[in-house]
Design brief:
flat; mainly alpha; 2 domains
Length: 104
């Protein structure tokens, strides 16, 4: 995906970090650093959502968070959910193929 964005003249988080880092890090090092940063922020957010007493996060937000986590996991568990042919085929099957009921 990064190559496609680069060919289209678009910047992403990796290219921006590499530019602002002075070009001292390789692409692989930058990706590793970003993944570590994201994991840390994800842990912080999860702590806020799981906190019961004295929580600043309203119940409705917590419920929305859990629903979004389920959806995002489905779309990104293997690869990029937007370009995945497997996911595209599954969605089309649900929307377009008839349901066959077997009589017992």
């Amino acid at each position: 995906m990064m190559q496609r964005e680069s060919e289209e003249g678009k910047l992403n988080a990796v290219s921006l970090c590499m530019i602002h880092g002075g070009g001292d890090c390789t692409k692989e090092e930058t990706i590793k650093e970003l993944k570590s940063f994201i994991a840390g922020k994800r842990r912080e957010l999860l702590k806020l959502v799981l906190q019961e007493k004295g929580s600043v996060v309203p119940r409705a937000c917590k419920d929305l968070f859990w629903k979004m986590i389920k959806v995002l996991h489905l779309f990104y568990m293997k690869d990029d959910g937007f370009t995945s042919h497997e996911m595209f085929n599954s969605v089309n099957a649900v929307l377009e193929e008839p349901i066959v009921l077997n009589k017992l």
